[in-house]
Specification:
Length: 505
């Protein structure tokens, strides 16, 4: 009788029994599981089925991404081309078809090297994103009307972005080895599906998620290379080096940090160097555009500007936004060095990226994609995650209804300015709420969902279970946290209890 070797079967079964089941610790997950037959049972954990968590979550992510494509059908069938306001009333707007012609891809112009007609002059995206856009243009059929070409370009991009979405879901699933089902937070996130094809952000998000996975596996070189590539696709991934610096400082892991930093710089330079040298004006457009653009959608700066008779200049907003971000960075660093236990890498990564978005002069609806994987790792609790997602979905609808109002002429179909300001407030407060919950988990580690189930920092790689060598504040007077043996897990007491190390191998 054929079958798995008994040793392999027992090892797989032991591993599956060691997995954290959200339905056993999360009331919302348990209630939601009734839709698919109830909580996962003991016999479903034997590890002999083809339906592993990674495969299930990857398929769910692809399914949700497909639903997001279906939601764009009204625009695909004409709203992108025949009416300015209808693409907003159907909430199916996407930059992709518009920029196919608007950024010269329809005319065969090469990004960064060929000058565009009009005021834009050059493509305003980082180099790796520009390459992604160009590859999609090469793969798109060139025949037919411009409408057919733009439809084909959007479909090709959607297929490439779907691969990115699956990569993100798989990487999050595998980052916390004992908590693979947390990947469903990403796969089922409604705002993720709705905003996935607005722009090309998923490329940078996928590279960042892969980098987080590599760091969790103790591979600083691979982490640095992937993070450098992610920064070559979007600027925000470089922010992760800040929290990692403070955490490695507290744990005394300088060699690993410097290795990661050097690898990131090298990867970024390899991608950007040739374009920088051969087409500097085109390469620098992204950076100059980021400085020169005014206050834009989704930010609290827009609320201030639209309610002021004398709004701040772009230069003043740039300065104030930078100062606010620096204050947030200082706050995150202080939190990392003074917390009773060293925060988890995913927690600080989420906080620093959220701070950047909240203080920025623009908070585009697709920026939620940056946060979804980090939120799933930082706060894997369905209630808090869904509260935040509900706020983002409300904003997703609000911005399109506001644009419908401003483009529908005297008909004024949509959401007026005051209503849009409320929508902005909702999604800012939703993100701030999730930040507050993560900060609470850091200050009270016994309430952290990950540490309550016996882990220390599964996304931390070399930081996982490491001892502290530099601590500030009251935590410096406590006993040093000893490094635990490899394979052991930190066991936390119940609410109000104290933590310690447990040598359960």
């Amino acid at each position: 009788m054929c079958g798995m070797p008994s040793g392999v079967s027992k090892q797989a079964s032991a591993h599956e029994r060691d997995l954290v089941r959200p339905t056993a610790e999360d009331e919302v997950a348990a209630a939601g599981s009734e839709l698919v037959g109830g909580p996962l049972g003991r016999h479903a954990l034997l590890g002999t089925s083809w339906w592993t968590p990674v495969r299930v979550i990857a398929l769910v992510a692809i399914g949700m991404f497909t639903l997001g494509l279906v939601q764009k059908a009204p625009c695909y069938n004409g709203a992108w081309f025949f009416g300015a306001s209808s693409q907003y009333t159907h909430a199916c707007y996407s930059d992709i078809p518009h920029l196919y012609q608007g950024r010269g891809f329809a005319d065969g112009l090469l990004p960064y090297f060929d000058r565009l007609p009009g005021d834009m002059q050059f493509l305003e995206y980082p180099v790796l994103t520009g390459l992604f856009m160009q590859v999609a243009a090469w793969l798109s059929p060139g025949g037919g009307s411009i409408q057919e070409q733009e439809q084909a370009y959007w479909l090709v991009n959607a297929g490439m972005l779907m691969v990115c979405a699956a990569v993100i879901a798989v990487c999050v699933t595998r980052t916390h080895a004992r908590r693979p089902w947390d990947g469903l937070l990403v796969a089922l996130a409604p705002a993720f599906a709705l905003t996935a094809t607005i722009n090309w952000d998923l490329l940078a998000v996928a590279l960042t998620a892969a980098a987080m996975l590599m760091w969790s596996r103790g591979r600083p070189v691979a982490f640095g290379v992937l993070l450098g590539l992610a920064t070559a696709a979007k600027l925000y991934p470089v922010l992760l080096l800040g929290p990692l610096l403070v955490l490695c400082w507290r744990a005394g892991r300088w060699r690993e940090y410097l290795t990661a930093l050097g690898s990131a710089i090298l990867a970024w330079t390899v991608v950007n160097g040739p374009v920088m040298l051969l087409a500097f004006d085109g390469w620098s457009k992204f950076y100059t555009f980021s400085q020169e653009r005014g206050v834009d959608f989704g930010s609290f700066w827009l609320i201030l500007a639209q309610n002021s008779s004398d709004p701040l200049s772009t230069e003043a907003v740039n300065t104030l936004a930078t100062l606010l971000m620096l204050l947030c960075c200082a706050g995150v660093a202080a939190l990392a060095l003074m917390a009773p236990r060293r925060p988890r890498f995913a927690q600080l990564a989420f906080l620093i990226v959220a701070a950047f978005i909240l203080t920025n002069k623009v908070y585009s609806p697709q920026y939620v994609l940056w946060l979804v994987p980090l939120a799933a790792l930082a706060r894997p609790r369905w209630r808090d995650f869904l509260i935040w997602q509900a706020c983002e979905v409300m904003y997703f609808l609000g911005i399109w209804m506001y644009l419908a109002y401003t483009t529908s002429g005297d008909a004024h179909k949509g959401l007026p300015t005051d209503g849009y300001h409320w929508a902005i407030g909702v999604h800012l407060l939703g993100t701030a709420y999730l930040c507050a919950v993560v900060v609470r988990d850091i200050l009270m580690p016994e309430r952290d969902p990950v540490r309550r189930t016996g882990d220390d920092d599964p996304s931390g790689g070399v930081l996982d279970g490491a001892g502290d060598v530099f601590v500030l504040g009251p935590a410096a007077h406590q006993a040093r946290h000893a490094a635990r043996p490899e394979g052991a897990r930190v066991e936390w007491g119940g609410p109000g209890g104290t933590g310690g190390t447990a040598g359960s191998l």
